[in-house]
From TrEMBL:
Ranges that cross the membrane: none
Enoyl-CoA hydratase/isomerase domain segment(s): 16-72
Gene3D superfamilies with a match to the protein in the record: 2-enoyl-CoA Hydratase, Chain A, domain 1
UniProt cross-references to InterPro entries, sorted A to Z: ClpP/crotonase-like_dom_sf, ECH_dom
Entries under CDD domains matching the protein: crotonase-like (cd06558)
Gene name linked to the record: ybl213_1
Record-given protein name: Ybl213
Length: 99
C-alpha cells in the first residue's frame, strides 16, 4: 500500500480521490488536506471531467474526521489560522467545484 495520504486515479471523464490513512481511520491531518487541495487545484479547469469521487481505502469506515493528535502541534491561535482555514478552504472548494 502506498504511503501517500490521498491516492488519485482517473478513467475517462471521472477521477477518484481516495483517502489513504486506514491505520488512522482516515483521520484528516495537514498532509491529507494539502494533498486533497493539490488534486482539486490540478483538476479544477479540466472541462472533460464529469465526476469527482471521494472515497477511502478499506471497507470499515470512510473518515473519522480531524486527526486530533495532530492538532496538539498547534497553538490555539495557529489552530484557527492554519488548520481551520485549510479545512474550510477544502470544503468550499468541494462545494463550488466548477465541473
Amino acid at each position: 500500500m502506498s504511503d501517500q495520504p490521498v491516492l488519485f486515479s482517473r478513467a475517462a471523464a471521472s477521477c477518484r480521490l481516495t483517502l489513504n490513512r486506514e491505520d488512522k481511520c482516515h483521520a484528516i491531518n495537514e498532509e491529507m488536506i494539502e494533498s486533497l487541495d493539490h488534486y482539486l487545484n490540478e483538476i479544477e479547469n479540466d472541462t472533460t471531467l464529469r465526476l469527482v469521487e471521494l472515497t477511502a481505502t478499506g471497507d470499515k469506515f470512510f473518515c473519522a474526521g480531524g486527526d486530533i493528535k495532530s492538532w496538539s502541534a498547534y497553538s490555539p491561535l495557529d489552530m484557527g489560522r492554519k488548520w481551520i482555514n485549510a479545512v474550510m478552504t477544502f470544503l468550499i472548494a468541494c462545494e463550488t467545484y466548477p465541473n
